[in-house]
Write a structure and sequence with these properties.
mainly alpha, two-stranded antiparallel sheet, 2 strands, elongated
């Protein structure tokens, strides 16, 4: 009976962990604002993405009525120059981070962040208003004429169906912590109930290796599915491609940690078994004398 309880508890613990770990990763790296910014921040340094993003930001600027006629001809050369060197402009890192934060608040309204300044979008969007503000500041500095930047400049990067999926993820991802607690309790119960505790260590370690393989296959499948949904918008497609690559790399670190933990558990189980046999053999030898 103890063996059955132990085996059932270990299997339950592994099944719970199979769901808990990806859910926690999604919550920490995508649903939570700071994690999302940390994950997506390097995308702003990608030269191709930066050029497409700058072009989109420039195309949204319409200073008509704000710039006097004598200065109107100066605007486009200023914007072209600023767009080519957007990442080198003073204030770009702060503007890109604010772009990510504003975008996150639009797309993850249920993540516990502060309320957005505007109504949430029905599609996945980037709000590049901070970058547009950076470009309009270049116009103001060059012409000495104040140019008002828009409060929002939205670029669609996904479809309504994908937005619905994001809403579901943001609602259910935090449940991963409860599942992780349940997994830990189940594994501990399995260890306590086992007649041969070394078998629990080896079994849990082998299960961790299997989970790591399953997560790797699942992550690759999700990446291919997202990459296959071309939108026809160059900015959106580049953002999705680079974001998926960044997500895969970061989740890969968790997979590697799981592989190491699994190997450690297997080795610990084998060592525990060897020590037990040596101690048991020594005990029998003493009793036979």
């Amino acid at each position: 009976m103890r063996t059955f309880v132990s085996a059932a508890a270990v299997i339950l613990g592994l099944l719970l962990a199979a769901v808990a770990v990806p859910a926690i990763w999604v919550d920490r790296n995508i649903v939570q604002e700071d994690g999302f910014v940390s994950l997506a921040a390097p995308l702003g340094k990608d030269s191709v993405f930066q050029q497409r993003l700058a072009s989109a930001a420039v195309g949204s600027i319409d200073p008509t009525g704000q710039i006097p006629e004598p200065f109107a001809e100066l605007v486009q050369p200023i914007l072209d120059s600023a767009a080519k060197s957007l990442t080198t402009l003073p204030g770009y890192p702060a503007a890109w981070e604010e772009t990510l934060r504003k975008s996150h608040r639009l797309n993850f309204t249920a993540s516990g962040t502060a309320p957005s300044e505007a109504e949430p979008s029905t599609t996945l969007t980037l709000d590049v208003a901070p970058l547009v503000g950076l470009l309009t500041q270049q116009i103001s500095d060059a012409t000495k004429v104040p140019v008002e930047a828009p409060e929002q400049t939205l670029i669609d990067i996904g479809q309504p169906s994908q937005r619905q999926l994001v809403d579901q993820v943001s609602a259910y991802a935090p449940m991963g912590y409860a599942l992780a607690a349940g997994s830990a309790i189940a594994l501990l119960l399995g260890l306590i109930a086992a007649r041969r505790r070394w078998t629990v260590l080896v079994g849990a370690g082998a299960g961790a290796l299997v989970l790591a393989a399953v997560w790797k296959l699942g992550a690759d499948a999700v990446g291919l599915a997202v990459a296959g949904t071309a939108s026809g918008n160059e900015v959106a497609d580049i953002f999705k491609s680079e974001f998926v690559a960044a997500s895969s790399d970061r989740f890969g670190q968790w997979i590697l940690a799981t592989l190491i933990a699994g190997a450690v558990l297997i080795v610990a189980g084998v060592i525990f078994r060897v020590i037990f046999r040596v101690v048991a053999g020594a005990g029998r030898a003493l009793r036979s004398r």
